[in-house]
Amino acid sequence: MGFYNDRILPRMIDMACGSKAMEADRTRAADGLSGVVLEIGFAGGSNLPCYPTAVTKVLAVEPSLVARRIAESRIAASSIAVEVVGLDGHSIELADNSCDGALSTFTLCTVSNPLVVLSEIRRILKPGADLHVLEHGLAPDPTTQRWQHRLNGIERYACGGCELIRDVPRLLATAGFEIIELDQRFASGPRPWSYFTSAIARSL
């Protein structure tokens, strides 16, 4: 991976995506989750303060050792039990139908094969359980889309494989989820990076 991806990038991501400004969006994304929750892309644990009290345990998937170290203080401050269950969302060693819900925030943009990851999440969720997502992705207007396509190669190189052009609702539907809530909007910041999708997708 190299020094930059291993040591520097996880800290940059925590500063950008784990800021106080993002906390309200994360809280809305986690709202309604309960019981045992699978979290893909746990990173530095920025979602922990945002989980509702009904969540009893988080099963975390996170490949970065530096990010897991960053998360230690947040885990210590949380009443929610956290167990790291995997490093790679493409293959998770959890039983079928074993989780009450799942959460993915700013992760589907980076995994190499989001459909495989979503299939793993769907396998692990109990029937009728929900995946909550908060992601950035492909904007609806042609001007922003053109810029996203122009910048995508740079983004992928500089940000650990992150893509600007993934269509989150289409990925969810293609993976066999039923989207039951969907909110898409431009957040503050440069438009190629700030088209956010917040969704709840049900495992059938």
Uncertain residue ranges: none
CATH class: Alpha Beta
> What kind of oligomer do you see?
single chain
Structural class: alpha/beta
Query: Fraction of residues in helices?
Result: 25-40%
Number of helices: 6
Terminal Cα span: 37 Å
Q: Which architecture name does CATH use?
A: 3-Layer(aba) Sandwich
Shape: globular
So, the CATH homologous superfamily? Vaccinia Virus protein VP39
User: Per DSSP, what share of the residues sits in E-state strands of 2 or more residues?
Assistant: 25-35%
Radius of gyration: 16 Å
How is the largest sheet built, in terms of strand order? Answer: 3-2-1-4-5-7-6
Please name the defining characteristics of this protein:
204 residues, alpha/beta, Rossmann fold, seven-stranded mixed sheet, 35% helix, 28% strand
Would you mind describing this structure in some detail?
The protein is an alpha/beta fold and 204 residues long. It has one domain (3-203): 3-Layer(aba) Sandwich (Rossmann fold). It is built from six helices and seven strands; from the N terminus they run H-H-E-E-H-E-E-H-E-H-H-E-E. Helix 4 links the parallel strand 4 and strand 5 (125-136). The longest helix is centred in the last third of the chain and has 17 residues, at 142-158. The chain is globular and about 45 Å long.
